[in-house]
Amino acid sequence: MNLKTEDYRVKAGKAVSLKSWKTDEKGSMDKEVGKVTATLLADELAEWQERLYAENKQALLIVLQARDAGGKDGTVKHVIGAFNPNGVRISNFKVPSEEELAHDFLWRIHTQTPRKGMVAVFNRSHYEDVLVTRVHNLIDHQTAQQRLEHIRNFESLLTDSGTRVLKFYLHISKEEQEERLQDRLDHPDKLWKFNAGDLEERALWDEYTSAYQDALTTSTEAAPWYVIPADHKWFRNLLISQIILDTLKDMNPQFPETDLNPAEIKIK
């Protein structure tokens, strides 16, 4: 398998046009081969997460952003599910509470970032405060740009403190979203996922496209964005698994050394 993951990385300091990124790409790969490969990657992910947890010197933050029905929960289930739950913390940032609104917009975010040895997953993240708020005119353009700069600085603080940051935008087409929303209506066991408000957000497709394009400009060498073709769920899972695995290997966590000599210890 030769997945060119760099092809999906947003270059630092570059403007982004989502029209130039495919949503239905499969990497010239057969679905069954891809699913088997993803299973093998899951085993490796578990091994490297154990190293990270045991070393207890570095941390990894994974940010998932997508439109409604874009596949965030599926990614958590099929990719993050490979990790030992003891070493993972999943957070979901929705409408802020009254207490959270009384602080700066990153106040509620910082407490959920990973401590050393841990993987944190933001299933929706601090980027909601430059997406939903902007599309619904809760903040103006100037405030949005200020917040994007604050986010860059915030993520720089995290990386300087030993936390690697990976950000994934799950890129689906409008047609694929329609199919997924309809699927929820057609199947009783999925109906609970349907929210009529999703249709109101869908009507703002172009506005969200513009807001996401601005958010993606926060891609840096230390905290990159990846635009993941997400129309095919299996390829989405495979590509994200490979990027996370490559990152963990680059972090190269090591099992801690010990003075214990196993030969001298007898268990009775």
From TrEMBL:
Residues 30-255 form the Polyphosphate kinase-2-related domain. GO terms for biological process: polyphosphate metabolic process. Keywords: Kinase, Transferase. GO terms for molecular function: polyphosphate kinase activity. SUPFAM superfamilies: P-loop containing nucleoside triphosphate hydrolases. It comes from the Bacteria. InterPro entries: P-loop_NTPase (IPR027417), Polyphosphate_phosphotransfera (IPR016898), PPK2-rel_1 (IPR022300), PPK2-related (IPR022488). Pfam families: PPK2 (PF03976). NCBIfam families: PPK2_rel_1. This is PPK2 family polyphosphate:nucleotide phosphotransferase. It comes from Deinococcus humi.
